[in-house]
Amino acid sequence: MNSSLADRILAGDPRAIARAISLVESEDAAAVELIRAIYAHTGQSYIIGITGPPGAGKSTLVERLIATIRSQSVQGRRLSVAVIAVDPTSPFSGGAILGDRLRMLTHSGDKGVFIRSMATRGHLGGLARATSDATLILDAAGFDIIIIETVGVGQDEVEIVRTADACIVTLVPGAGDDIQALKAGIMEIADLFVVNKADRDGAERLALTLESNLSLHSFKPGQWRPPVLNTVATTNTGVTELVDAIWRFRDQDKTLQSRRQRMRGESRLRDLVSQRFMKRLERNGLKPGEFDDLVERIAARSIDPYSAADQLLDRVIPVAAKT
Amino acid sequence: MNSSLADRILAGDPRAIARAISLVESEDAAAVELIRAIYAHTGQSYIIGITGPPGAGKSTLVERLIATIRSQSVQGRRLSVAVIAVDPTSPFSGGAILGDRLRMLTHSGDKGVFIRSMATRGHLGGLARATSDATLILDAAGFDIIIIETVGVGQDEVEIVRTADACIVTLVPGAGDDIQALKAGIMEIADLFVVNKADRDGAERLALTLESNLSLHSFKPGQWRPPVLNTVATTNTGVTELVDAIWRFRDQDKTLQSRRQRMRGESRLRDLVSQRFMKRLERNGLKPGEFDDLVERIAARSIDPYSAADQLLDRVIPVAAKT
Question: B53–A92: do the CB atoms touch at under 8 Å?
């Protein structure tokens, strides 16, 4: 069953893609086999991450990006675009699901566009894992561009876009203390800044603040300096310039792209090793009831969680051992 | 140094508490020793988690909860309250830091109140781990009540309140599709629902929707049915009733509380085992360069990440082995 699902994904069948993403979302065991089957066919897509606070107009901007990218062709072929909208607000607002439908309507009938929202409510890290696997599926399906849109409010969500080939941070004027926005580590993840709703009061000041903060950084000769771009997504203003800037970023430093790909590989490996270790430990490395006993002792305060964790690990990898 | 820091925490010294929380926030190695030293003295606080969408008025509500709880005494002693405000929006808005200062002002001089925001931007799961350790520090310092406030938009943030002794979900009228709010797994984590800003249009409908959804659940006799409470935090309306409901919940089922404490122990142990395993594997279980080689092969698509993870794990815990 999965080999044929893999084949259908490689052929770009949208229903197979949708089904496969549902599998990774539900953390179905079949998803692992599927990723194994398609993995050799991945690594071709260019991955663009977009993050920013709620209300920055990211959905509209992504909408415009799709249209602009779709209107471009490379060697006579129009670029295809897939979007993963990671919407952690959906447990409360249902925004993702409704948004999905609206957006799908706009592009219905266009086979070169695929839009999907992710809103896994599993364990810690589950969302990042599912998004990462969904990206692999879309990559194997042959999409030229994959846009991952997150609301940059949760740790997972910032983490998700951090390893994209290009990371766009979208800000809006008047959304609070601009200076704070820059202090808190956003500078480091942005390859491009977008001041959206740039027709609003305070847009110029926000752009200036971003620029003056960038000027505090010392960029080496030849090093990419994140540009600050102004857009008004609702009127499609500045979107072509944004897309041009993305391509400039992509073309300026090819080694960066392979470094990011390596980063994705590394974070995925670390995540999987940790996650699968725990499962394996419980199945094959523990005496029956041993884990539960430790949990009871932690709850009873007769052992602290750090010592309990070390006690389990000592059996598997003694600290002194050098293999 | 740490043993004296531990002693000062146990004595309730606010500066020692603040310093210890900074240690866990920065994932300092000394933090592990500190938690080990204080852990036996924890398990006495009652932990209240509050989550809800941005704009639900949680900060004001928490403010009112502090004042109401502070006004109450048990056996002639006024209850002390500590608050951990997990504000993942702060990378963009700086809300946490500013909010902290404002809130601290209101309660300055009151030694029975401690307020602290957490906004770690570390690795996946880092925020949950830091919050969990900060809770232990406040618990060891003797606070009767610990309130953990999160914006329920990220997976980590929902996860953080899930294991509190009492979990309050705060909603507001007019914040989107009410029905969706209920579909998305929020029902399961709430012990109490609060409709805040209950003087607004649509509040009654929201409360009715919550009630009618609750009535679809079949509660066993004696089982807690989450009440739906109306508050207007700005005018202090309904807050005493909310506090009463929290105490009713606390007193109705003591076994639930020990079950939650066990859940906290379990999730902490799982998290620590996974995290510390990876570190130990790299230090003691791998040949030099072995991990990097695998990462390169993943990036080069010559091995998929799942197979790479299994390859590392096979050496540590063979699948067939039964210890």
Answer: yes
Cα–Cα distance between A51 and A244 in angstroms, integer? 19
Superfamily of chain region A40-263: P-loop containing nucleotide triphosphate hydrolases (3.40.50.300)
Higher-confidence residue: A260 or B160?
A260
Q: Are B178 and B228 in contact (CB under 8 A)?
A: no
Q: How far is A248 from chain B (nearest CA, A)?
A: 23
Cα of A244 vs its chain's centroid, Å? 21
Interchain CB distance below 8 Å, B274 and A276: no
Residues of A in contact with B272 (CB under 8 A): 305-306, 308-309
Tokens at residue B295, please?
A: 């990462």
| Record: contact B153-A89, CB cut-off 8 A | yes
pTM over 0.90: no
Q: Do B92 and A184 touch (CB under 8 A)?
A: yes
At residue B184, does pLDDT exceed 60?
no
List of chain B residues whose C-beta atoms are within 8 Å of the C-beta of residue A159: 123-124
Chain B residues with CB inside 8 Å of A94's CB?
A: 176-177, 179-181, 183-184
Query: What are the tens digits of pLDDT across the range A269-316?
Result: 888 888 888 888 877 778 888 889 999 999 889 999 999 999 888 887
Distance CA B89, CA B99 (A): 12
CATH classification of B43-269 is 3.40.50.300, yes or no? Answer: yes
Q: Looking at chain A, which residues constitute the CATH 3.40.50.300 domain(s)?
A: 40-263
Contacts B119 to A, Cβ<8 Å: 184
Q: Where in chain B is the domain with CATH 3.40.50.300?
A: 43-269
pLDDT digit string, tens, across residues A170-189 = 888 876 544 444 445 566 78
User: CA A195 to CA A169: how far, in whole Å?
Assistant: 9
In whole angstroms, how far apart are CA A27 and each of A24, B26, B239? Answer: 5, 32, 41
- Residue contact A284–B125, C-beta within 8 A: no
